[in-house]
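Design job #97: recover the sequence.
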């Protein structure tokens, strides 16, 4: 049985990561989900999720708060969890998909950041 980890990594272009030498020999470490034996619909959904996830980060300065409010975080979390369920179903028994997805939540400093991004300093957060 091949084992893979499911998680999002900014800018990586994937959600699936091969575990172990044998899986990596076939799939590399960062798995191209377009090569997976799953439906085109699921491949498209995984691409959409990867692109959506990348919008959660403040690319100008990643340690500062990203732009997402809690409602968008919840929508993304739900979609990401549905996708791993679909992956497990479509890939079948020969694949073990470990869920290492960390749910996203609104940064508590987002309002303060948006009020004055140029002078935001996380070290001054209460």
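Job complete. Output follows.
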């Amino acid at each position: 049985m091949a084992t893979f980890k499911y998680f999002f990594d900014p800018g990586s272009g994937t959600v699936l990561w091969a575990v172990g030498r044998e899986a990596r020999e076939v799939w590399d470490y960062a798995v191209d989900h377009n090569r997976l034996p799953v439906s085109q619909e699921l491949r498209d959904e995984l691409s959409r999720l990867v692109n959506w996830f990348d919008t959660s980060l403040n690319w100008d300065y990643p340690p500062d708060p990203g732009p997402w409010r809690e409602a968008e975080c919840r929508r993304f979390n739900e979609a990401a969890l549905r996708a791993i369920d679909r992956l497990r179903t479509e890939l079948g028994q020969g694949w073990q998909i470990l869920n290492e997805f960390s749910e996203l939540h609104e940064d508590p400093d987002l309002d303060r950041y948006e009020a004055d991004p140029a002078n935001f300093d996380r070290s001054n957060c209460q």
